[in-house]
Amino acid sequence: MTTITVEGMTCGHCEQTVEEALQDVSGVTDVTVDREEEQVSVDGDADATTLVETVENAGYTAHI
Fold first, then answer.
1. Which of 15, 22, 23, 29 would disulfide-bridge 33, Cβ 3.0–4.6 Å?
2. Which residue intervals define the domain HMA in the entry (predicted)?
3. Strand 28-34's sheet: what is its strand order?
4. Domain of 15?
């Protein structure tokens, strides 16, 4: 599992946007988003750098 800190999620739509973007990454098997904790947990074998770039491309600040 990879845990990513995501800044800028303010509502349920933000959570959905991040979740859907990450689910489209090859190798991702499950995504859990918690906007109050500013955390996203990603299961699977996708590269962590790719996951961070995907979140940033969706419009949010992200880091591991």
1. 15
2. 1-63
3. 28-34, 39-44, 2-7, 61-63
4. 2-63
